[in-house]
Amino acid sequence: MTFYCTNAHQMSNVCRHRQAIMLQGSGSTEHVVCPVHRWTYDPQGELIGAPHFAQKPCLALQRDALESWHGLLFKGPRSASADLDGMRLASALDFSGYKLDRVDIHECNYNWKTFIEVYLEDYHVGPFHPGLGNFVTCEDLSWQFGDWYSVQQVGITSLARPGSPTYARWHKAVLDYCGDDKPAQGAIWLTYYPNVMVEWYPHVLVVSTLVPVAVNKTRNVVEFYYPEDIVAFERAFVEAAQAAYMETAIEDDDIAERMDRGRLALMKEGRNEVGPYQSPYEDGMQHFHEFYRRILAPHI
């Protein structure tokens, strides 16, 4: 549960009486009431009601402070604001005025690091993504790197030649909504190491969080956000954006599965092969490899 007073905080959803889960689903509430015995807590987690107890027990829900970075909430040992400080494109990833529309759980049949490798190289966009490759222009790709992040920016085409029927809908949605006010870029892709991605597309923000499940299984939690007016009145825009996003995601799955199968085949033969990095298109992959080696070095 997340509550906002002066600052946002995360609060336990487990009742202090018999450890039952209290709230389910999504929504908002002024008080938290456990349905089992009607124990009631205020927004600070303090117990304010315990039926049939002569004296109210001195019990409260556990609270953890959350850190806000441009509207995204983080909890953990690190500071997102410090890790992402100095990122030039941060203002484009501001969630003010944006509303969550949908959360997708996308199951990937490959290692989480392979996902990041594919995400951080643009070398494959032209050959493998007919839809995305005719929406963005990677020829004007630019990178910025920090100790804990990489961010890439690519331009946008004229939107005159969509590369797939799905992207034709997305092109039309962007042109219809933007009119003569053409977007300044096609996409911004931030990777906050090791496993969080924040993406900008015209009037769209997407957050992806990777959850490793097994050596060859990864769960990707994908959150789609849009300006409030688009969520309320522009359903065709929302659906076109999500369909285009998922078309590209499925194509990326194909690449990543091929990579993992190839590496497994080499491992079974007792071989290890690595290829050269293409610069600038694969600069992000190289940066991730350097990051990962640096983080692992003290432990191996």
UniProtKB/TrEMBL annotation:
<dbReference type="GO" id="GO:0016491">
    <property type="term" value="F:oxidoreductase activity"/>
</dbReference>
<protein>
    <recommendedName>
        <fullName>Rieske domain-containing protein</fullName>
    </recommendedName>
</protein>
<dbReference type="InterPro" id="IPR015879">
    <property type="entry name" value="Ring_hydroxy_dOase_asu_C_dom"/>
</dbReference>
<dbReference type="Pfam" id="PF00848">
    <property type="entry name" value="Ring_hydroxyl_A"/>
</dbReference>
<dbReference type="GO" id="GO:0005506">
    <property type="term" value="F:iron ion binding"/>
</dbReference>
<keyword id="KW-0001">2Fe-2S</keyword>
<keyword id="KW-0408">Iron</keyword>
<dbReference type="GO" id="GO:0051537">
    <property type="term" value="F:2 iron, 2 sulfur cluster binding"/>
</dbReference>
<feature type="domain" description="Rieske">
    <location>
        <begin position="11"/>
        <end position="75"/>
    </location>
</feature>
<comment type="similarity">
    <text>Belongs to the bacterial ring-hydroxylating dioxygenase alpha subunit family.</text>
</comment>
<dbReference type="InterPro" id="IPR036922">
    <property type="entry name" value="Rieske_2Fe-2S_sf"/>
</dbReference>
<keyword id="KW-0560">Oxidoreductase</keyword>
<keyword id="KW-0411">Iron-sulfur</keyword>
<dbReference type="Pfam" id="PF00355">
    <property type="entry name" value="Rieske"/>
</dbReference>
<keyword id="KW-0479">Metal-binding</keyword>
<dbReference type="InterPro" id="IPR001663">
    <property type="entry name" value="Rng_hydr_dOase-A"/>
</dbReference>
<dbReference type="InterPro" id="IPR017941">
    <property type="entry name" value="Rieske_2Fe-2S"/>
</dbReference>
